[in-house]
Amino acid sequence: MALLQVENLVKKFPVRGGILNRIQGYVHAVSGVSFEIPEGQTLGVVGESGCGKSTLGKTVIRLYEPTDGRIVLKGKDITALGPAEMMPFRRKMQIIFQDPYSSLNPRLTINGHIKEAVRFHNIVPPGSATDDYIDEVLQKVGLRPEAKNKYPHEFSGGQRQRIGIARALCVKPDFVVADEPVSALDVSIQAQVLNLLSDLKEQFGLTMMFISHDLKVVEHFCDRILVMYLGHVVEELEADDLDQQAQHPYTKALLGANPIDDPDDRRPLVVLQGDVPSPYNPPKGCPFVTRCPVATERCRQEMPRLETKSAGHRVACFEVE
Amino acid sequence: MTNAPDAKPVLQVRHLTTSFRTDDGIVTAVDDVSFDVFAGETLGVVGESGCGKTVTSKSIMRLLPEHLTIYGEQSEVIFEGKNIIRANEREMRKIRGDKIAMIFQEPMTSLNPVFTVGWQLDEALKYHTNLSRKQRREKAIEMLRLVEIPNPERRIHEYPHQLSGGMRQRVMIAMALCCEPDILIADEPTTALDVTIQAQILDLMNGLKEKLHTAIMLITHDLGVVAQVCDRVMVMYAGRAIEFGSVREIFHEPQHPYTNALLESIPKRGSRRSRSRRLPTIPGIVPSLRNLPKGCRFNDRCPACQQRCIDEEPELINHSLDRPVRCHFPLNQKTQTESAH
Ligand SMILES: Nc1ncnc2c1ncn2[C@@H]1O[C@H](COP(=O)(O)OP(=O)(O)OP(=O)(O)O)[C@@H](O)[C@H]1O
Ligand SMILES: Nc1ncnc2c1ncn2[C@@H]1O[C@H](COP(=O)(O)OP(=O)(O)OP(=O)(O)O)[C@@H](O)[C@H]1O
Ligand code: SF4
Ligand SMILES: [Mg+2]
Ligand SMILES: [Mg+2]
Questions:
Q1: Which B-chain residues 87-146 have CB contacts (< 8 A) with chain A?
Q2: Which atom from ligand 2 is nearest to the alpha carbon of B64?
Q3: Residue A12 has pLDDT above 50, yes or no
């Protein structure tokens, strides 16, 4: 059984305005997303800025209230649990935030950050030493014990990301959402953090959702990949198949726009015209229709459904056989 | 240096040393950096955050706070036969925008939010050309069309906040190019953008190089971008230029251990089951400018480090033909006879 099952998840944000501050419409950030993550696997989520990746991650662990749909963790439907019932599940699901700096409290030492989480979830049994446990966690993410008494601003970007990882992992979660954990880092530091995450994943048997806009990183790190566009999943496939088997015109466009690190393999890069439409006013029909190079009249009228093309490969496009 | 399309450089930077006065003393962000930029080529400048890429380009444009910045005595930036590092603000204003233009990482910092796009283009044209009002309007529309902004007649009446990030960056490029500069310095022009928009911008810059023969200095930390659009590359580390080469040489035969490690640490596209492999990493972090290691600045992270690297800093020299590298023990060296083939 999958550790996490998500069915038809929807998240809309109301947009208010006018003199009475009434709801004038909705931002359709996540529109009917379904997937499963088997225990110990990593699901990658890719797509352009604003396509709903962070919103999906936060809604899945119920930092945002879902507008519709179902979230099932270890066989238990947690979609509508109240705060008290939700408590044990809060510990089990953690997030590593996109921006490590703004998610840390500048006035709290590293020790403070981790102690807070550990105490809140009663991770260390009464009587045993919390401090020893914190040292152990810091050591696992490659920080020295001296780091404990320092404040977030005293660390480099890569070190702050390690602190974010330590804070998420110190409560022994089953499922972790890693939201662009390496995007703000230099390549050499990015490689260090990715290696650290794979070691920890193995050590703790973690199941993960790994959000990134960098195809190289997702392909390297994940087992399966969800490609999102304007709140919808347009393709889902094995990471190993991304390069050769991708079929959705948007996935192909992303692949084609990604500059290859080989000066002997130069290609014309331009593949898509225009910008992503606003999720406040999504187009009728296929979400990709305004930029799609192979769109037909049918795509303008009707929304293609995510259909299984081969085992483990789903695509939402009328033009894909 | 190697593979330059034209023999004569449009810009020569010699021994550029840029230091800042700070509360706790003077820090040197760029230390004795020399390079040429040729017409019709794109020179890539790469290196980790804080290595001095932006300070180098802002030194050329003289956009650093004058009262806090000290340029070394030997420093020269030679443009049209003149060392502009000592030029006064009036002379610089003639050069900026007109002859050398710069686009920045964050377009909002250089677009004025309270004026329309058309007004801003008009100001730039007024300052640098003798065109009539009507001609300027036509030129503004033509420039927006060149950077592929749809409906330019309508867009000139819009304010920067009404445009998407990619469109703003394209307006920036239109402004930078409206006076047909000899040199375009682009500092991470696509870092904040999505790959599909990045592809549009890079394509545009390639077109300029070919059509207008503009010399481009492209600063980026994305090695994929370098591989796709640059002709030559300068690699920087902790304020130093540490390696130069053609884009092929840099990617296929990196000589500096830092360049080599940087290339190895990026995940490779399309490599099946690459995730079972750990990525090669560079241990540690970039040293602080206030506390540089003695000897080679890369020695505490370098896999090839030996005693000599700790005792003395290597000079930037050619170990093999025309490939300046700052390392005592460079990799992938070719002898003179080999590279003659
Ligand atoms: N709290 C919120 N209130 C209103 N709208 C929101 C909120 N959070 C996100 N949105 C909107 O929902 C859409 C999806 O945003 P989200 O942050 O999930 O995108 P993303 O894919 O993570 O983008 P990025 O790559 O830039 O992080 C965007 O249009 C965004 O403006
Ligand atoms: N006005 C200043 N006063 C003091 N130090 C400065 C000043 N401006 C820049 N520096 C320092 O100079 C060094 C080089 O900075 P620079 O902005 O050139 O780096 P960069 O290579 O462009 O990095 P990034 O990739 O992050 O943009 C940094 O250590 C920076 O802190
Ligand atoms: S000089 Fe020595 S320490 Fe520096 S890069 Fe070369 S081998 Fe490494
Ligand atoms: Mg996000
Ligand atoms: Mg910079």
A1: none
A2: 1
A3: yes
In this complex, do B266 and A216 lie within 8 Å of one another by their Cβ atoms?
yes
- CATH 3.40.50.300 positions along chain B are 1-99+181-267+277-283
Which amino acid makes up residue A221?
Answer: F
The answer to whether B65 and B31 are in contact (CB under 8 A) is no
Query: Is A188 inside a domain boundary?
Result: yes
Rounded to the nearest 10 degrees, the angle between the axes of helix B133-146 and helix B117-128 is 120
How many whole angstroms from its chain centre is CA B24? 29
Average pLDDT score over residue span A264-272: 79
Q: Is the pLDDT of residue B338 over 60?
A: no
CA gap A51, A36 in Å, rounded: 20
Q: Say whether pLDDT at B193 is over 80.
A: no
Distance separating alpha carbons of residues A286 and A302, to the nearest angstrom: 6
In a domain, A320, yes or no: no
Q: Residue B3 has which token pair?
A: 């593979």
ipTM score of the complex? 0.84
Per-residue DSSP letter, B138: H
Q: How many domains does chain A have?
A: 1
Give the whole-angstrom CA distance, residue B253 versus residue B260.
8
Q: How many CB pairs under 8 A join A and B?
A: 145
Domain carrying residue A106: 2-315
**Positive/negative CA dihedral, B94, B190, B113, B123:** positive
CB proximity list for A300: less than 8 A, separation 6 or greater: A283, A284, A285, A286, A289
Query: Ligand 3: which of B240, B309, B311 to mutate, most ligand atoms within 8 Å of CB?
Result: B309
Q: Do B280 and A191 touch (CB under 8 A)?
A: yes
CA of A150 vs chain B CAs: smallest distance (Å): 18
pLDDT greater than 90 at residue B74: yes
pLDDT digits (tens, 9 = 90+) for B83-107: 999 999 999 988 987 899 998 876 6
Q: Is B325 in the pocket of ligand 3 (CB under 6 A)?
A: no
pTM: 0.89
A274 CB within 8 Å of a chain B CB: yes
Cα–Cα distance for residue pair A319/A296, rounded to 1 Å: 8
Chain A residues touching residue B223 (CB < 8 angstroms) = 187, 261
Residue A293 in domain: yes
Interval between CA A272 and ligand 2 midpoint (Å):
35
Instruction: State how far the Cα of B201 lies from the Cα of B166, in Å rounded to an integer.
Output: 8
A296-305 pLDDT tens trace? 999 999 999 9
Residues A168 and A160: their CA atoms lie apart, in Å, by 13
CA distance A126 to chain B (A): 37
Q: What is the amino acid identity at position A106?
A: P
Q: Is the model's pLDDT at B5 over the cut of 60?
A: no
Q: What's domain B1-99+181-267+277-283's superfamily in CATH? A: P-loop containing nucleotide triphosphate hydrolases (3.40.50.300)
Residues B236-293: tens digit of each pLDDT? 999 999 999 999 999 999 999 999 999 999 888 766 555 567 888 888 888 888 889 9
Q: In 3D, which of B278, B249, B199, B283 has the Cα closest to residue B2?
A: B249
Q: For residue A106, give the CATH number of its domain.
A: 3.40.50.300
